[in-house]
């Protein structure tokens, strides 16, 4: 058991020692004062009733003193905050998933629903790191890779409000209108691919790309070039297309690009899309990584409270017996 305020016990012990010394000194002075003699007291003190009363008095005095010490000591230990210490070594999965969302005008009616799809995806993961990038004429990182799922869910909830037209969240779109044209899919995908750690290359990496692949401008990186970049970096791309209209050329190009990376292509209306993406991502190497160990402290007042209650009961019992 550890104590949060161990110095409190040291100060209390010092005060107790000083108190004992003062009491001892005072009692010593009293013994030095001559007491008045009482004639024929021996006959009284030798009576069995007197001896029983004296023993009872001494026992009650001892119980009162012990109970008082127990009560005071327990109260001091409780004030010093006893703690239980446990050492935890969290484990995380060595998979990274970057959510990549096209927020151009042609996607406006689908983005809120796509964010709901992202939220459903996040619910299916545990321990993986997840990030979010949005793009239009330029790309912006909403949040980098993290395994803080409370934070992730909060950010996705804010994204859904922004994409549903809530003016309070207009700042969500900052940084996505700095290029020429709109819906520059290749630039957005390239940004997502390069958003992974550059040092740790052992982690499985996936991008979930949500776009209709309707290009409207001159990107710095074409979609097929971004796909080759993903392949060279070992990143699998999973495509979600909310506007697939049969075998249109944009959908065909998107399918070709994502499948070339080892990923899969889905129409958003495909009811099995979420489950298929999750199972495909989880099928990748998923060994556990030990994170840095951390100590967890929790208050443990049970014993001090129990002993304080026992001491209080002893004090009350001895005092009542004395008063009777």
TrEMBL record:
<dbReference type="Pfam" id="PF00092">
    <property type="entry name" value="VWA"/>
</dbReference>
<dbReference type="InterPro" id="IPR036465">
    <property type="entry name" value="vWFA_dom_sf"/>
</dbReference>
<keyword id="KW-0472">Membrane</keyword>
<protein>
    <submittedName>
        <fullName>von Willebrand factor type A domain-containing protein</fullName>
    </submittedName>
</protein>
<feature type="transmembrane region" description="Helical">
    <location>
        <begin position="6"/>
        <end position="23"/>
    </location>
</feature>
<feature type="transmembrane region" description="Helical">
    <location>
        <begin position="61"/>
        <end position="80"/>
    </location>
</feature>
<dbReference type="InterPro" id="IPR002035">
    <property type="entry name" value="VWF_A"/>
</dbReference>
<keyword id="KW-1133">Transmembrane helix</keyword>
<keyword id="KW-0812">Transmembrane</keyword>
<feature type="domain" description="VWFA">
    <location>
        <begin position="96"/>
        <end position="281"/>
    </location>
</feature>
